[in-house]
Amino acid sequence: MTKSDSELDPLWNDLDWAIGQILIMGWDGTEVTPQIRNLIENHHLGSIILTAKNLKSAEQTASLVQELQTIAHQAGHLQPLLIALDQENGGVNSLFDEDYICQFPSAMGIAATGSTELAYSVAKATATEVSAVGVNLILGPVLDVLTNARHQPLGVRATGDDPQEASQFCNAVINGFKDAGVATCGKHFPSYGNLDFLGSSLDMPIITQTLEELSLTALVPFRNAISAGRLDAMFVGGCGIQNAGMNVMHACLSDQVVDELLRNELGFKGVAISECLEMQSLIQEYGVKGGTVMAVEAGNDLILLCRAHDVQLEAISGLKLGYENGIISKERIYTSLKRVLRLKSICTSWQKALNPPGLSLLSKMHPSHLTLSRAAYDQSIAVVRDKENLLPLSQSLLQEEELLLLTPLVKPLPASAATKSMLEKKSNAKASSIHDKWVHQEHGAIMSGEGVFRELGRSIARIRNGKLLHTSYTANGLRPVHENLINRASAIIIVTADANRNLYQAGFTKHVAMMCHMLRGTGQKKSLIVVAASSPYDFAMDKSIGTYVCTFDFTETAMASLVRTLYGEIVPQGSMPGTLRKTKKASKTRQQWLVENYDRDRDGSALTELLRTLARSSTPSLPYLTTAAQSFELFSPHVEEAHFVVRNSSTKTLYGFVATYYTKGIGAIGALFVDPAKRNVSIGRSLHRRAMRALLQKQGLKKVQLGITFPGIFPGVPVDESGSNKSWFDNVGWDTQFPKRLTNMVIDDLGSWTAPEGLLQSIQRASISFDLIHGLDNAESVLNHVATHAGPEVVELYRTALQETNTSGVVRAKNSMDNLLGTVIICTAASRLSTYIPPLLSAHGEDIGGIIAPIIPATAQSTLILQGLAFMGVRQNKAHKSAKSVLSWVLNEAHEPLEAMGFEVQQTFDEITNSPENKVSALNNAMATFNSMPALQSSASPGDAMGLNAMNSGMGMDSFEPDLNFDDAMLENVNGGLPPLPFTPSYDFETFSTTFEDPFNYSKPYEAAPHTEDFHDEGSSPQQPDDKLLSFSATNVKATPLDDALGAYSEVNMSAELYGMFFVAEDVFGGESSGRPLELTCYRRNLWQCSGQVTMPRHCTQVMNEQGRTIPIVEFFASISAKESIEGKSTEIISIPWKSSNPALGEGQETKVAGAPPKIALDLSGGQDVDGHRVSIPVSWKRLQFKSATANNGRRKGLQQHYVVQISLLGKMKTGGELMKIAEIQSGPVIVRGRSPRNFDSRKDVPLTGDKKATGPVERARTHSDASSTSNLKTERSDSNHTLHPYQSSSLSNSTTPASTWTTPSTPAYGGQANAQAHPAKKIALSPNMNRPPVPSWGKESSSKIQASGNHKNNGNLSSASSVPISLSLSEDERSPNNRSTSDSLTSPKLHRTSTSHGAAGSPIDEEEELYEYFPLSVDDWTPLVDTVYRPHIVHHIAVPQEIKAQQIRNKSKRYFSAE
């Protein structure tokens, strides 16, 4: 018990002693400095704040605290010092010791477990540990509520966004602290949970909520904690408050906040602690003296000053001056003194303070606390979504498949193994002053940025016992190293850290997700998992991220739990905290409806009635208005159809309907709608699930899609402004990111329509003619044309149209060679097609002419052909007295030139296509979580799914007119005799230019030109180590392939590129051969790979050789080989298999032996369409080595031997089965050296800036015209002159995505010159273009264990005039001593997986290093590190000295590489 007010010890009558007790101060350093000793002894400082900069270990901390208390005791202090510490857990810990102090989850991580009991246990364990080293006041818990959770920097330091839940967990934490004998301090009053950042990062954040709003949300945890009576202190924040009732610049300096709100209204009786008064804005506005006086006057009892000794002395003198001036009364000082003394009497005593238990107690507690730590983290990991059932990875990813880890550059957490290791490595560095040490520590943090997540990568590699690729990403976005690694890997894990504050992370993640989706469309396996390692709100609401995991911090223990979660060792139990968890719990259980097969006789009339109901309740009413039950049934022998209903068996009423169709590997949902009165009760979900089950059971299913063009009721999901239609399908597992847009168009007043001027003249100039056919006699060429360029359902549409000789026909566009250029169906309202295409029927009885399904390959004349076909259709419709002309449909952006002709957009649809594998996964996931899925908003109801809220009213069907014939004479004068008409300029899709940088624009490679000087501007150099060194030559054609579809000979093109640890060869010729080209070199044992593509006709069975003979070919292959330069003899390339630990083979034996690289069979039917007739087929050889080194080893002039890599296109002849060479390409010369250093320390060889003169071969690399010129250091992409060949579709827009988004500038179709230049000082062999061809997934290895080879030691130092490593390496480790992580292990806890075989590596550690491969960032890719933890005293309160600021600015121009 404390003495009464009148019984205070006489010592406190000395005002100096009283003032010292109401101050709390800190300092820099891990030892007691003269400055802090002076404050305790001479200024009677009564409270100390310790931070991470003071603490190295538990033992050092206990010793330091004991020394401080001894100094205070010897100086005559009546009560021990208050020793305060920030130990919130998660990312905000000041004390770290892997042997004695356990790491626990952040406040939000604990809340994610849903257990207040666990919160209490963790808090008590934390307080017990810090109490053992002498700490008696924990600055916690955080009582803030994230009322604007997604955009608040406090993030995981807070419990969540629900005030009541925050109160429960915070009270449990307070009880845990108190029961461990430590005082508590709630923070940050009145709230940091909803801040507005109106100015720069140095400006104070502002609270704009009114007191009433704060009282309902933010103040609830504070009020409840105060009411519970166990909160000892309150930390008052430094934010501003601006609202109608209060205008405060700094909350901790305002009596409105401290005395009135905190004490009077909330009834707080404890100690009020101010925010640190070293804040920049306060110093600028009031000065430290004035601010200190204001803080005491406002009602604060402890005034915090963190580190600067001169500022602390200024604050003490300010308090004395305030007393002398009468601003601060003696009573005010003694009121605070009594509160502080009362707090000290509760939490400490001299016996306890001078004898901390230290390591003896910590060592006893540590095992149980370690178990608690692991259990807490395991329970906190939350899998928010896993739509595709990717988890655990042990079931979805094969061991031989490669896994890619992409992590952001972040600052290490203040108390972590990474930071500790980094500081230990820097401990020997000399610094002349404290500020120099501070700067040195900041540099260390920068240097360790790439190492923060290294141990995560190693842990994943260990647990999967398979290859793990790892690199970092920054605000520079997707770089070439990312693109190549994504192409290489089968699964990608992206880690984000507070992406809502660091928006580049969100953009990068969405970009990678889009790239994975595009690559999946080409048949590659690209699984994507996003891990939020800090704020869980990064992608909590973004359903396009199918698998989303939250860890709530990225401490070593959290990452270890993440690894166990990813590989199924633990079942994730965590959930999103706060309101998101409540929403999930409150969602009603979904009803499962019985789904029956559609019966025409039983359900036909009920279906028609349901359609009328939908027409009456939908706006616009299309397509329900003119649709009837028979519109969904094709009765075609070429199409399998199955329709399902949910019905009331008693009243015979239909509640919902779904139609499915299957033809030639394509499964489609053609319609899905629900009675408006029965929405939001899971009828749509039940129908969808039944439809998907029916489609997925089809044999030979290749893809599933939403929407079908025949019948064309719903060609896709109707596009609405709200996006609710697509959102509904997102929720049931469809990937809707890249739809194909189909647009219906109409000319409402056909009678007044006139043709645009110039159209006929343009058609004449292009020599395009048109004719009309109907009947199947002449249909073969048309049906083949449609089958080549459209889906099988469109073929069926054309077949149906051709069968109706009286009411429909097909117009063909042909060139002067009589080759087919395009087709379109033209029909009247009497056609049978109007039954299946509702826009062709009118509810008002008027005749509507149809122009249906124009099929035009993507060429330079595509737009002109489309306009010509549309013009023919309109003229035909006018001849039959139609009132309107409807065009159903055109693809993507092709509606734009038709709008210029007078068409208007009637309705748009998005056809969505997914792979069946994705749908199986999504369907299983939907079934497993059917009863736990959150309720759908009304705006995205199941009935709305296919535009079911978008259309309305009565039905009308005109009778057929079988006697109405087409007037063929209407087409006779197309090619002449018509008056000149103005013409809308055509849109050349292939040459359409945009400034958008397309990451998937894999263009053609460099093609050698006969005159190299033509490709160099003045001041550039043909000797630059640019893209030509890694590229291959132009295609050398030995035989010409015959395109069977065209009946004409076609060209073949090949491209390729080398990847690996290639160098620019040193100049063995000296200055006498300055014109000699640069050469590549590598070491024999270095692994490398070669990837490329072959472009040739899709239908090819014969070739013509150089003698003019036609040779039948039955199969095509691609092969790789090499030859030497002096005699042209072949030399061996070998393919190195993965090592295996198969016990049957014996330890260290291989399941495969090294041998010649295999020939790759080319499947022409499975290639990517380049145009209507040619395909591009990717080829790749991995893990290659040269079997022998070249002669002379690069040392003798004139006699240097080279190897040249050749890729050949081979054809297997039908007669005899021999292989003949059809075409070949070859690389530039490569010098292969016999020495094989383990590591290449490129970072010491490459100058960081380009302003120094280069010597040796660098000088040789300059032009005679401008030897002193330097090129830009950054080698950004310069691919604005390449087309998007690998992603061209056969549709009109020549793209799988809208042209406005993905069109790219064109270049000569095959072969182009890349212009990227590198600074001579870098001397790096760059890849031939940043737009590489997609690297196909590698073949499955038979080995059960992956063991990389090629880890070589560096036997000498490489100078800048010598060989310099390439900036990227895809198949060889780049682990040099400068690249190693600062943290090689997770200590507590750590994943230990014992290897069954050491093989050649010799130890499990070596094998682990071979499984884990890190690709460091280049100089130009580096950006400053991200601080994921928002600490106001760091962001707003530290006035960095000017000389340190200047040093920081200078450092930003350099790249610091650490010896990780």
Question: What attributes characterize this protein structure?
Answer:
1460 residues, alpha/beta, 13-stranded mixed β-sheet, globular, disordered C terminus
If you average the pLDDT, what whole number results? 76
Largest sheet: 13 strands, mixed
Instruction: Count the E strands.
Output: 50
Radius of gyration: 37 Å
Structural class: alpha/beta
> Hey, roughly how much beta strand do the residues contain?
15-25%
Helix content: 25-40%
> Which residues form runs of ≥5 with pLDDT under 50?
1-6, 429-447, 928-1027, 1068-1075, 1140-1151, 1236-1403, 1436-1460
Query: Helical stretch count?
Result: 39
Through-space gap between termini:
54 Å
Inertia-based shape: globular
Explain what you see.
With about 1450 residues, this protein is an alpha/beta fold. The protein is globular, with a radius of gyration of 37 Å. Strands 20, 21, 22, 23, 24, 25, 26, 27, 28, 29, 30, 31 and 32 form a 13-stranded mixed β-sheet that branches. The protein starts with 14 loop residues before the first helix and ends in a 9-residue tail after the last helix. It contains 39 helices and 50 strands. A hairpin with a 4-residue loop joins strand 45 and strand 46. Helix 1 (about 15-20) packs across helix 13 (about 330-345), helix 11 (about 285-300) crosses helix 12 and helix 15 (about 360-380) runs parallel beside helix 22 (about 555-565).
